[in-house]
Amino acid sequence: MFGQLWLVLNPLLLSGVYFILIVIIGGSTDSARYVHLTASLFLFYLVANSLTGGVKSITAGQRLILNTAFPRIMLPLSAVIIAIFKFLPTLIVFFVVKAIIGSPFSLEMLWAIPVLLITVFLALGLAITISCINVYFRDIANFLPYLTRTLLYLSPILYEASDLNPNLKVLEIVNPLFPILDSWSRALVHSEAPQISSLLQGLAWATGIFFIGTYFFLSREREFAVRL
Amino acid sequence: MSSLSASNLHKTNELAVSIRNVGLTYTTAIDKRPTLKARIKAFGLGGKQTRVVRALDNINLDVNYGQVLGVIGTNGAGKSSLMRCVAGILPPSQGRIEVYGSVSTLLALGVGFNPSMSGRDNVFLGGLAAGMSREEIDGHFDEIADFSELGDAIDAPMRTYSSGMYARLAFSVAATVRPDILIIDEALSTGDAKFKEKSLNRVKELRSDDRALILVSHAMQTLRDTCNDVAWLHKGKLIQRGEPNQVIDAYQEFLHLGKSAAIDEDV
Predict the structure, then answer these.
(1) E strands along B134-236, which residues?
(2) What's the pLDDT at B187?
(3) Given an 8 Å threshold on Cβ–Cβ distance, is A65 in contact with B89?
(4) Which residues of chain B does A135 touch, with a Cβ-Cβ cutoff of 8 Å?
């Protein structure tokens, strides 16, 4: 009905729904909180969309894989590219929301660029890994919605990283998205430079997942045609 | 990958594909879907339930430029497996395959097509999937559209096409690719009698001294007309190879008799 408009409507509705949740549970109607929510949620959906697009990229590309010779890694890669194209309009939505609410713009916001690059790198690694796993364990695709949902709650999206209960600090270490989303929110919402340690931690996660996933993918890719 | 290049550097009788002692074994799981649940259950039972299929067994075959090789055999003879090995889609379990030139495959029609998009868009999608560049497709678009005889329907979404229209467009796209080595797997039996004739003529046009063609088909008369060499596969083994009429006669005799000493021999 709305066609391309959904690319903008979807993220707006999504952030609206989660804002209701925050207001009801947290009792906070702070507008800065809404800016944080939109910023983090949109970046999170870049990763989540890469995962949901990537998970079936190999198994759904069966006809292509059985009939043409090409680098199989193009399939999860294209899923990530689609996720990026879905993300770009949401970025515009975010800036409009930020401007309307009156949150200040500053040079520190440029820190968001390296954060975004790390996120894309991480999303690519995750998509490659999960597309490969799904060839061998087809029911991963069924687990995925619960996996992303859990990841959403474990990440500083509905709450701010600084609000985290000290007993749960372990989340900062085991969740690859935690340092990335924290840096993203610091740069875009609070206009301050992110902690270098967070950036490095995010980059380490992304690099690790990317190389391990790509190694498995490339060493198995010749077998995919037989497995499908 | 493949190109539409007019200037091929290959000479007639130069080796195009060399297949040496190639064997292919599949291990197919007996459980229908490789799920986590199935894996855990199998773990409890001790080991995975699998069945080993020998799809290809010690195949030796050379194809030269200028040759049109027909590949015949009953269903499950390993024809498609061999073609997939040559195209680099399936890795052979034993032996080696050397390919000198660009390979394009026509193993199935309409690979890469998206039914919800228009025929026009799908010409680009299919062309890109077959290894053409966007400019090459642009340059040949009218030729493709004319050949498919779709007329105005080219701008309608492909889900509205009849299966014949779908196949016609798919063949038209595929026939535009001009690789050094072209593998066609039973892709000719599409459309009505008129289109069949037309596509057969197109394949004959593709025969040239600087190109190698491999045709997999069950249409014996077509193979007699187009090929200058025929290989007969049965249960993964190369039974006979040589002059088309001779090999096809032997194959047809085998089909009617159902038995032949050379085939029943178990090695």
Answers:
(1) 181-185, 212-216, 229-234
(2) 62
(3) yes
(4) 34
Spatial contact of B126 and B144, defined as CB atoms under 8 Å apart: no
Long-range pairs for A21-26: beta carbons < 8 A, 24 or more residues apart: A21/A158, A22/A158, A26/A159
Residue B89 to residue A69, Cβ atoms within 8 A: yes
Instruction: Tell me if B89 and A227 make a contact (CB, 8 A cut-off).
Output: no
Does B24 touch chain A if contact means CB atoms closer than 8 Å?
no
**Residues 6 or more apart from A169 whose CB is under 8 A from it?**
none
- Residue in B35, B89, B130 nearest the CB of A139: B35
Q: Which residue in A55, A64, A68, A227 has the most chain B C-beta atoms within 10 A of its own C-beta, making it the best mutation to test that interface?
A: A68
> pTM of the predicted model, to two decimals?
0.82
The minimum CA-CA distance between A225 and chain B, rounded to whole Å, is 6
Q: Provide the residue range defining the domain that includes B175.
A: 15-23+61-264
Query: Is residue A130 helix, strand or coil?
Result: helix
Percent residues over pLDDT 90 in chain A? 49
Q: What is the pLDDT of residues B104-141, one digit of tens each?
A: 777 777 777 888 888 888 888 888 877 788 888 888 88
B250 found inside a domain = yes
ipTM of the complex: 0.72
- The full set of domain ranges for chain A reads 29-227
What CATH number is given to the structural domain containing B211?
A: 3.40.50.300
Length of chain B: 267
Domains: count for chain B: 1
